Amino acid sequence: MLLKFVYTTLSTHSVGLLSQVVHDTHQRAATAFVSINNPYYSEKEMEELTFCKDICRGNPDFKWLTWRANDGTTSFCCEFQDFNRTVKHLSTLKVNDLFY
């Protein structure tokens, strides 16, 4: 298995979003992990900044993943295709499945 880690930072609505895409090049599987690190945003503002369906929370395939609660950070996971609608510079990755 060859894993490729792609790090990106986004600047959307004057907000710095940090993300990491884990891409298994052999299996053509990828998942994007995104964090918004700002303790001053309300829960509603954080929900508005979440730009994809969170595929990790409540998904048994991602039971190994835990987020720290109440630390001022909101984190979520995206299917690569959903993530790529916002972060277009990774469109050359060939992805057919989720990375677990």
Roughly how many Å apart are the termini?
Answer: 13 Å
Q: What's the order of the H and E elements?
A: EEEHEH
Dominant shape: globular
Total beta strand runs: 4
Give the amount of beta strand, in percent.
Answer: 35-45%
Tally the helices: what do you get?
Answer: 2
Main sheet: strands, sense, barrel = 4 strands, antiparallel
Spatial strand arrangement across the major sheet: 1-2-3-4
Category by helix and strand content:
mainly beta
Explain the overall architecture.
The longest helix is centred in the middle third of the chain and has 7 residues, at 43-49. This protein has 2 helices and 4 strands; from the N terminus they run βββαβα. It is globular and about 40 Å long. The mean pLDDT is 80. A hairpin with a 2-residue loop joins β1 and β2. Helix content is 14%, strand content 36%.
Describe the protein's topology.
Layout: E1 3-12, E2 15-24, E3 29-37, H1 43-49, E4 73-79, H2 80-86
Core attributes:
100 residues, 4-stranded antiparallel β-sheet, 14% helix
Give a short synopsis of this structure.
The chain has 100 residues and is mainly beta. It has helices spanning 43-49, 80-86; strands at residues 3-12, 15-24, 29-37, 73-79. The chain has two helices and four strands; from the N terminus they run E-E-E-H-E-H.
